[in-house]
Write a structure and sequence with these properties.
Elements: H1 14-28, H2 39-51, H3 56-65, H4 69-79, H5 90-107, E1 113-119, H6 125-135, E2 145-152, H7 155-163, E3 165-166, H8 168-172, H9 177-183, E4 184-187, E5 190-193, H10 195-198, E6 201-205, E7 218-223, H11 232-245, E8 246-254, E9 267-269, E10 276-279, H12 280-286
Parallel strand pairs: 1-2, 1-7, 2-6, 7-8
Antiparallel strand pairs: 3-5, 4-5, 8-10, 9-10
Helix pairs in contact: 1-4, 2-4
C-alpha cells in the first residue's frame, strides 16, 4: 500500500494510453486525442493513490481482468474534462437575459412555460447561473413555470450539481461579491447555493448521444465545450440529437470554439445573437 501523500511518477505506455482512450470513447463518445494525453498522469494520480496502485500499467491490468466494474467508471470520470465556472464567457448569458428571454416571454405567453437544458453541465455552475438570471428578476417571471435541467455523463458531477456546494475558489470564479453573498451560504463543506435556486433545478445522468431527456423539446439548449472532444461522425450524431430536442423556434448555445458549420445542416447561426444557433428555417423567416 502506498504511503499517504506519496507522489507517483508514471511512465505511460502507448498501449495503456490506447486502452484508456478506447474506454473513454466507448463510454462517452469523447476522444482522448494525443494533445490531451498529457492529462492522464494528473487525472488518474489521485485514484491510484486511493487504491494503492503503483502505475497506470497496473491499473490497466486490473481493468482488463474485469474484476472491478466500478473501477472503470471511476477511471472514465477522472478522464473527463470538467472545467467550468459561473457565467462562463458572460456575453452569451447577457444575450440570453436581454434578448432571448424577452423573445420567449412573447412567444410563450399562452403556456407561460420555458424549458432549458444544459447538456454537459459538469458540477452545475452553468445551471445555477441560469437559475440566477430568473431569480434576480422575480416580478418578471411571476406566474411562469421555469424548467431548467442539467445533465452530464458523469454520475459524480451530477451528484455535486444536485448538492450545489462549491469551494471558495469555485464560487468566486465568475461571480461578483454581491451575487456570491446573495445566492450562496458558507458552511463547513464550502459555499452552498441557496435553497430557492436548488429547488428550481433538476439534474440527471445523461449522454448527449442518447435520446433527449424528458420533455424532449427545449426552448434553450446549452451544450458548450462538449462537442470539441468528439470525432466528426460522433459530433454530427450529437448535433442531430440536440436539433431534434430543440423547439422549432428555440436556441442552441455552443462554446466559443464550436460551430454548426459542416456539422449540423438543420441549424444556422442567429444573425443577431453571436454564439446562439437556431433551426435554419427560423433564420430564413427572420431575414
Amino acid at each position: 500500500m502506498l504511503r499517504p501523500g506519496l507522489v507517483i511518477f508514471m511512465q505511460i505506455s502507448d498501449s495503456s494510453s490506447r486502452i484508456l482512450a478506447g474506454l473513454l470513447e466507448a463510454r462517452t463518445g469523447q476522444q482522448l486525442t494525443m494533445s490531451r494525453r498529457w492529462r492522464l498522469e494528473t487525472a488518474l494520480s489521485q485514484l491510484l493513490r486511493e487504491r494503492g496502485i503503483t502505475s497506470i500499467d497496473e491499473l490497466i491490468t486490473i481493468l482488463v481482468m474485469g474484476r472491478e466494474p466500478s473501477l472503470s467508471t471511476r477511471v472514465v470520470e477522472a478522464l473527463l474534462n470538467n472545467e467550468t465556472y459561473f457565467f462562463r464567457d458572460r456575453t452569451p448569458f447577457d444575450l440570453v437575459r436581454t434578448t432571448a428571454l424577452s423573445e420567449l416571454i412573447r412567444r410563450r405567453e399562452s403556456t407561460r412555460t420555458i424549458r432549458i437544458w444544459s447538456a454537459g453541465c459538469s458540477a452545475g455552475q452553468e445551471v445555477y447561473s441560469l437559475a440566477m438570471l430568473f431569480a434576480e428578476d422575480p416580478a418578471r417571471w411571476a406566474g411562469w413555470t421555469i424548467d431548467i435541467l442539467g445533465t452530464d455523463v458523469s454520475e459524480s458531477m451530477v451528484g455535486r450539481a444536485r448538492e450545489g456546494t462549491y469551494t471558495q475558489f469555485e464560487v468566486q470564479r465568475g461571480l461578483g461579491i454581491q451575487q456570491m453573498i446573495r445566492w450562496f451560504e458558507e458552511g463547513a463543506g464550502g459555499w452552498r447555493a441557496a435553497e430557492v435556486l436548488r429547488k428550481s433545478l433538476r439534474f440527471q445522468v445523461h449522454n448527449i448521444l442518447e435520446p433527449a431527456p424528458h420533455p424532449g423539446k427545449f426552448d434553450l439548449i446549452l451544450c458548450r465545450n462538449v462537442l470539441l472532444y468528439l470525432n466528426d461522425n460522433t459530433r454530427k450524431n450529437a448535433f442531430q440529437r440536440l436539433s431534434s430536442a430543440l423547439a422549432p423556434d428555440g436556441w442552441l448555445m455552443l462554446g466559443a470554439g464550436e460551430t454548426v458549420i459542416g456539422q449540423a445542416p438543420t441549424l444556422e447561426a442567429d444573425r443577431d445573437m453571436r454564439g446562439l444557433y437556431r433551426h435554419r428555417d427560423q433564420v430564413t423567416k427572420a431575414a
